[in-house]
Amino acid sequence: MKKSDFYYDLPKELIAQHPCDRRDESRLLVLHRQTGAIEHRVFHDLPDYLQPGDCLIINDTKVLPARIYGVKQPTGAVVEFLLLTQHNDGAWECLAGPGKKAKPGDRFSFGDGLMTGEVLDVLSGGNRLVRFTFEGNFYEILDHIGSMPLPPYITEKLQDASRYQTIYAREPGSAAAPTAGLHFTDEVFAALRAKGVAVGRVTLHVGLGTFRPVKEENIEDHVMHYEHYELPEETARLIRATKAAGGRVICVGTTSCRTVETVAAKGEICADEGWTGIFIYPGYTFRCMDGLVTNFHLPESTLMMLISAFAGREKVMEAYRVAVEQRYRFFSFGDAMLIID
After folding, report:
1. Sign of CA pseudo-dihedral 3, 29, 152, 120
2. Which fold does the domain 67-145 belong to in CATH?
């Protein structure tokens, strides 16, 4: 298939620049994947579409305030670093700009000396490997000196940083939010519990590759970025029990989907941890997921390809045409879609 098969025309004014006043008041487009039928609802109506015995899988990753500014020693040049992934030896892979001012051996001071960093290497693709030195808790220092790494298509300043976190975020490590989860409130979870819907957690730390465009026209030539995931034993038991009883596994976001499908590809769903570069596009056979809560994605993105694999390309493209026509809000702070039988 070609990248252009997943293109749609999006008016710029439909790209949401700020979150909805109340998380669960976002609009919800419901796409029935067997028939292609479309309904227009509000996100707090989500429990109407789930049944007792279903389970919801959420990604509890927490976005780091990963954009930090370093002062180069001794020149005083300022370089922006964006933390992407922590390697096993403790060093961080980062984007650095301007990159020419961040060469191996260069040292930087962050937060008036709260933390220092040394560039160890320039990796393929231009990312920098940086080792940070500090006293105390790294994440507390980041909270003090860092800022939220909003996607490049959001140009307005975010007034409340908590709105770029899900209410259930607890495992620090992402460079971007799992945005399908931003719509959930305590009230929505209470309604789901009252209906007999169980909730299981996975963790997948979202890398900046989630925004990286597909460059190859033949999508099969695209190489996915790798992200770290964990599926705990409690969630594995829940998924197995749900399936055994005839219930459905509903993933919140493409990150939860990629996690459960990575594990399911190995056989029976069991506790697992590792790195995944799974690329899901039309022709893929889903082994675990039965429904998906997601946001509206960028044209020609791997996420468009994933939802097209699940619901069918023609049905997805028609749903997006309707969403544009109905003036839905798109991307990270935009409205939501539920894809379900």
Report:
1. negative
2. Thrombin, subunit H (2.40.10)
Fill in the DSSP letter of residue 147: B
Distance CA 98, CA 198 (A): 47
CA 127 to chain centre: 20
Q: 3-63+160-340, which class in CATH?
A: alpha beta
The dihedral over CA atoms of 236, 229, 332, 286, expressed in degrees to the nearest 10, equals -50
Residue 209 above 80 pLDDT?
A: no
Helix (H, G, I), strand (E, B) or coil at 68: strand
Domain ranges of the chain: 3-63+160-340, 67-145
Taking only the tens place, the pLDDT of each residue in 323-341 is 999 999 999 999 999 999 9
One fold for 3-63+160-340 and 67-145: no
Q: In what order do the strands lie in the sheet with 227-231?
A: 38-42, 27-32, 336-340, 291-295, 249-252, 55-59, 198-204, 227-231, 272-276
Q: How do residues 120-153 score in pLDDT, each as one tens digit? A: 999 988 899 999 999 999 999 999 999 988 888 9
